[in-house]
Amino acid sequence: MDRHQEGRDWLVGQTATLAAIALYAYTHIAEAGGFRLQDHVHVGVWIRRMQCMQGFVPMDCRRLPRVPRCQETCFTQSS
Fold it and tell me: What tens digit of pLDDT does each residue of 29-74 get?
């Protein structure tokens, strides 16, 4: 997934899709399953981009950290 995201803003197309929303549900908590997200830079950028979408609501507000107010940088690939 990290290799696929390199140079892309979204998994497929020009915006989030139903597939992206479905993948986000598991991917953003991958560390709970032993996967180090910091080792997957492009996936991390994509996760932040998903969280910056207008209307984003965390799946479980009691357990997830509060999403900071997003700025334009959420839509820029970082290395």
Answer: 888 888 898 999 999 999 999 999 888 887 765 555 555 555 544 5
Q: What's the CA gap between 17 and 10, in Å, rounded?
A: 8
Q: Compute CA distances 65 → 4, 5, 41, 47, 57, whole Å.
A: 27, 24, 19, 13, 12
Helix (H) or strand (E) holding 5: helix 2-5
Entry pTM: 0.71
Angle made by CA atoms 64, 69, 72, in degrees to the nearest 5: 125
